[in-house]
């Protein structure tokens, strides 16, 4: 795919997206319409089975929609060559399995592959970008460690570093905090805020923890039953009524005096 010399919209637009894994299966995603604008951190939340990961797979062209389309900068996602798409969007997957024959440094350097000629050695620019990504994710100290010796949390940080090293405008993460301890959850989310602020990255991340989403995401997409239930500014989406409709449980919302954000506590009524 050749990049147009004309001006383009710096956004991802999802139009009437529906998807199912097989022809005889019911739709997992149903008529999704949403636009991702540059310069935001989007948190995708919702109960298990609401379609969050399936939505991510469609955004990355791991699967093809049954209906509708996804436009990236005014170009249909299906028209992108894989290498060109890898220069636009990077992924931090939920599955942290990696080939055990690689060292941590080698895995992070793989993020530079879309920019390298075949069999070419890493340039100084590649080395600098990889080093910066590893420092940002706190994994430079074990860069020479074999990946099969990593803990789940360490592996998650390495894959995040690889995605950052890919140096794309868009960064997609599928439950990046799931295998991290509390300290590294906070450090990871703060590193994403820095990427948005200082590197002009746009972040789209699936999250299970509503409080992490409320603290670090300025835009929320809340899904239920394969549909977007509501989306918009965090404080407008995360209301008691909307949370109850989606999660089928009550929430108490408190003011967090430390950071000026809201804190969400689920509860049941006897």
Automatic annotation (TrEMBL):
Keywords: ATP-binding, Nucleotide-binding, Transport. It comes from the Bacteria. The keyword Nucleotide-binding applies. InterPro entries: AAA+_ATPase, ABC_transporter-like_ATP-bd, P-loop_NTPase. The keyword ATP-binding applies. One of its GO terms (molecular function) is ATP hydrolysis activity. Residues 12-250 form the ABC transporter domain. It comes from Anaeromicropila herbilytica. It holds the Pfam family ABC_tran. This is Iron ABC transporter ATP-binding protein.
């Amino acid at each position: 795919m050749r990049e147009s010399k004309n001006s383009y919209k710096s956004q991802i637009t999802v139009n009437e997206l529906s998807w199912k894994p097989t022809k005889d299966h019911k739709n997992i995603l149903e008529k999704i319409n949403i636009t991702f604008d540059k310069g935001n951190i989007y948190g995708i939340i919702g109960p298990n089975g609401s379609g969050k990961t399936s939505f991510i797979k469609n955004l990355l062209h791991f699967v093809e929609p049954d209906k509708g389309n996804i436009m990236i900068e005014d170009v249909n996602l299906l028209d992108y060559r894989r290498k060109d798409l890898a220069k636009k969007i990077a992924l931090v997957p939920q599955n942290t399995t990696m080939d055990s024959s690689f060292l941590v440094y080698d895995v992070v350097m793989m993020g530079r592959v879309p920019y390298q000629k075949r069999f070419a050695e890493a340039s100084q620019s590649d080395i600098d970008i990889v080093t910066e990504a590893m420092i940002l994710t706190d994994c430079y100290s074990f860069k020479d460690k074999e990946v099969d010796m990593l803990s789940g949390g360490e592996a998650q940080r390495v894959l995040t570093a690889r995605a950052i090293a890919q140096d794309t405008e868009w960064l997609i993460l599928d439950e990046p905090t799931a295998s991290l301890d509390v300290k590294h959850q906070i450090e990871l989310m703060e590193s994403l805020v820095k990427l948005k602020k200082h590197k002009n990255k746009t972040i789209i991340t699936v999250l299970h923890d509503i409080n992490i989403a409320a603290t670090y995401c300025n835009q929320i997409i809340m899904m239920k039953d394969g549909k977007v239930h509501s989306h918009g500014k965090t404080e407008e989406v995360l209301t008691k009524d909307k949370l109850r409709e989606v999660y089928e449980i009550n929430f108490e919302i408190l003011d967090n005096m430390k950071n000026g954000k809201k804190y969400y506590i689920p509860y049941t009524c006897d």
